[in-house]
Amino acid sequence: MSEFKWHDAAIRKALQVYFIMGSNNCLKDPMDVLREAIDGGITLFQFREKGTGALSGEPMVELAYRMRELCRRHDVPFIVNDDVELAITVDADGVHVGQEDEGASAVRERIGSRLLGVSAYNMGEAGAAICSGADYLGVGPLFSTQTKEDAKAASGLQVLTEMRGSGIHIPIVGIGGITAANAGQVIHAGADGVSFITAISHADDPTAAAREMRQAVHAAGGSTSNAKSGKAGGSR
Ligand SMILES: Cc1ncc(COP(=O)(O)OP(=O)(O)O)c(N)n1
Ligand SMILES: Cc1ncsc1CCOP(=O)(O)O
Ligand SMILES: [Mg+2]
């Protein structure tokens, strides 16, 4: 198992431009989409092979391996959605789980020091996720989304201001309907970064789309403006 220890500042930096995708989200070869997104400057990638038309079994595992290799070559940390077994099999850098998935405490036990992201829709879920050992929260859907089949109603940005106003300092990434046009608002509301599927997976030019997202996050202050306890020396 990887012994890499994630530091707070490194997590906030990685969350800045967090691309999530599975083969069924793409309009062309998913490896090309990922390669182009990396060229455009994404800072973290989540393999989320889920929903109508998703791969399963050996083809899914093979795609995960190929994507993990590509990310590793470019020093982009690789996260697996939902599937802890798969994350361990492909030696992912972390796992993201939601409220309907395996419990965060059990996942932490299984993955050791790998990065653990947990979804939180409200203050109660955020508090529980932190107690269970989450390294970061995925908060949303903030805006309406067509991508997640069972998504809750859009919460709006006030959930972020409420969390930050109540002393929740853990790294947070916003999710749901995020584009380069609204990414700055997400950062200003208190998130360290933005995560998104469609903004890149449906873009004619994923490299340009990633670059645009990166510029929007940096223009809004990026992770540095929200880092409350970043330790120096994070090596990612
Ligand atoms: C960064 C990030 N935040 C939230 C989610 C959503 O997780 P979940 O609620 O478990 O829903 P699914 O993605 O599994 O459908 C996420 N994947 N990533
Ligand atoms: C996985 C997930 N969780 C909450 S919203 C969402 C989908 C985000 O996709 P998009 O960026 O296309 O709205
Ligand atoms: Mg999930």
UniProtKB/TrEMBL annotation:
The biological processes this protein is annotated with in GO are: thiamine biosynthetic process; thiamine diphosphate biosynthetic process
The EC category is transferase
Q: Which cofactor(s) are needed, names only?
A: Mg(2+)
The residues the record assigns to binding 2-[(2R,5Z)-2-carboxy-4-methylthiazol-5(2H)-ylidene]ethyl phosphate are: 145-147, 177, 197-198
Q: Name one GO cellular component term.
A: cytoplasm
- Keyword Magnesium included in the entry's annotation: yes
SUPFAM superfamilies this protein is in? Thiamin phosphate synthase
**Which reaction is catalysed here?**
2-(2-carboxy-4-methylthiazol-5-yl)ethyl phosphate + 4-amino-2-methyl-5-(diphosphooxymethyl)pyrimidine + 2 H(+) = thiamine phosphate + CO2 + diphosphate; 2-[(2R,5Z)-2-carboxy-4-methylthiazol-5(2H)-ylidene]ethyl phosphate + 4-amino-2-methyl-5-(diphosphooxymethyl)pyrimidine + 2 H(+) = thiamine phosphate + CO2 + diphosphate; 4-methyl-5-(2-phosphooxyethyl)-thiazole + 4-amino-2-methyl-5-(diphosphooxymethyl)pyrimidine + H(+) = thiamine phosphate + diphosphate
EC id: 2.5.1.3
Q: Where is the Thiamine phosphate synthase/TenI domain?
A: 17-200
Q: Does the keyword Ribonucleoprotein apply?
A: no
Pathway, per Swiss-Prot/TrEMBL? Cofactor biosynthesis; thiamine diphosphate biosynthesis; thiamine phosphate from 4-amino-2-methyl-5-diphosphomethylpyrimidine and 4-methyl-5-(2-phosphoethyl)-thiazole: step 1/1
Annotated residues for binding of Mg(2+): 82, 101
How many cofactors are bound and how? Binds 1 Mg(2+) ion per subunit.
Query: What does the entry list as the binding residues for 4-amino-2-methyl-5-(diphosphooxymethyl)pyrimidine?
Result: 46-50, 81, 119, 148
Q: Which family does it belong to?
A: Belongs to the thiamine-phosphate synthase family.
Question: What is the annotated role of this protein in its UniProt record?
Answer: Condenses 4-methyl-5-(beta-hydroxyethyl)thiazole monophosphate (THZ-P) and 2-methyl-4-amino-5-hydroxymethyl pyrimidine pyrophosphate (HMP-PP) to form thiamine monophosphate (TMP).
What is the designated name of this protein?
A: Thiamine-phosphate synthase
> Which organism does this sequence originate in?
Paenibacillus taihuensis
